[in-house]
Amino acid sequence: MEIKIFEQKDNPILNRTRIKFEITQEGNPVPSRLKVIEQLASKLKKDKNLIVIREINPDFGSSNVEGEAILYSSKKALEKLEPKYTLKRLEAKEKKVEEKPPAPAEKPEEAKPEEQAAEEAPAEEKPAEASETPSEEPKEEPKETEEKSE
Questions:
Q1: CB neighbours of 12 closer than 8 A, spacing ≥ 6?
Q2: 57-83 burial, b for 16+ CB within 10 Å, e for fewer?
Q3: Each residue of 8-42: pLDDT tens digit?
C-alpha cells in the first residue's frame, strides 16, 4: 500500500489541514481507516490521534483509492470541531483492534479442554436419546398419515 498526498490545504482559523490522498494497491482490498491513518501519520510524521479520515473512495475497476483526511493541530481542536459520533467511531475501532490480538491467542488454549469435555458428554447422551426418539415417532406418524388420507 502506497500513499501519495496530492493536496494539502491549511486552515489556520480552524487549526487544521485538509489532506487529499491517493492509495495505490494491487490486488488488495480497500484498506481500513485505521491502516490509512497509520500510513498518513508515518508519512506526515504527526500523531495518529490527530488525524480523522473523512472519506475513502475506491475507483471501480482499478487498484486506486482516493480519500480525504483532516489533520488537527491539537487534540483540543479535534474534540471541539469533530462531531461526537466520529470520535466515538474512532475510539470503538481502536478498542476493537487493541482487544483482538490477545483474545484469540488465549481463548483457543482454554476452550479446547472445555470443548472436548462438552463434545464427549453430549455424545454419550445422544445414543440414549436416539434410541428413545425413534420408538416414539413411528407410532405418531402413522396416525398423522391416516388422518391426512381420510
A1: none
A2: ebeeeeeebebebbbbbeeeebeeeee
A3: 999 999 999 999 999 998 888 888 889 999 999 99
- CATH 3.30.70.330 domain locations along the chain: 2-82
What SS3 class is residue 5?
strand
Residue 48: name the closest of 69, 31, 66 by CA: 69
Close Cβ partners of 10 (under 8 Å, ≥ 6 residues apart): 17
Q: What is the DSSP letter of 150?
A: -
| Domain range 2-82, CATH class | alpha beta
Report d(CA 115, CA 127) in Å as an integer.
Answer: 19
Residue 92 has a CB neighbour count (10 Å cut-off) of 10
Under 8 Å between Cβ of 52 and 72: yes
Give DSSP secondary structure letters for 31-71.
PPHHHHHHHHHHHHTS-GGGEEEEEEEEPTTSSEEEEEEEE
Whole-model pTM: value is: 0.61
The grid coordinates listed for 35 are 491502516
